[in-house]
Amino acid sequence: MKIWVLTLFPEMFQGPLSTSILKRAKEKGLFDYQLVNFRDFAKDRHRTVDDTPYGGGAGMVLKPEPVFAAVDSIMAQANSCPYRILTTPQGEPFNQRLAKELAAKEELLFICGHYEGYDERIRSLADREISIGDYVLTGGELATMVMIDAIVRLIPGALGDEQSAQNDSFSEGLLDYPQYTKPAVFRGLAVPEILLSGHHARIAAWRRRQALQRTAERRPDLLAKLDLTAEEREMLQQMGYPAPTCEE
Ligand code: 6GU
Asked: Taken in order 23, 93, 126, 43, is the CA torsion positive or negative?
């Protein structure tokens, strides 16, 4: 996978992209990235990227010309046609399903919005407008890094253990079950007996039950979207959670 990032602040990306899983994924050749500063595409002497809004009002707005010129340049260099994402708090909410969808693309281009906003015509450059949550960031850079992290770890081979991405919270629409490691008792807190039993089928059933319970307690909104088996509905009922039904 190739990831292009259009940003006024390429230096912000150095930490996350050169650490841990992302660093290793790049070293393994699983993905590559290129940071492009669209200020380099501003034509005037002062390399201006923003201007005052038509119609008045506070703040500055990103100008279309440097962003369009930068996207043109990237499209000319790209191998395939990158799937273009515009970061904006007004976008579609990012989630694990979207991360999986984007992880299957050959080439991505993130356009990081900044300042108080951008000229509306910039939106026409994007295939998708995405937000990472209902709060306002000073720019799209952190949102882009969050998305790159969630996407790249899903590329086969990026995580050491192929199982671990499948067991993630949300991968099946459920939160994760609780995990423990040694010691068996720590400060009086014991690891659940079942996990020490070596009984794989019972452990799997316990984990499923824990994941269901956790999701019911913390994220009933997720539970409502699941295709539960009759047995799982029964299990939830016994734990005191009303069997959720999906009313279309
Ligand atoms: Cl993608 N951009 C900005 N500026 N703020 C956000 C966001 C994106 N997602 C949530 N808040």
From this structure: negative
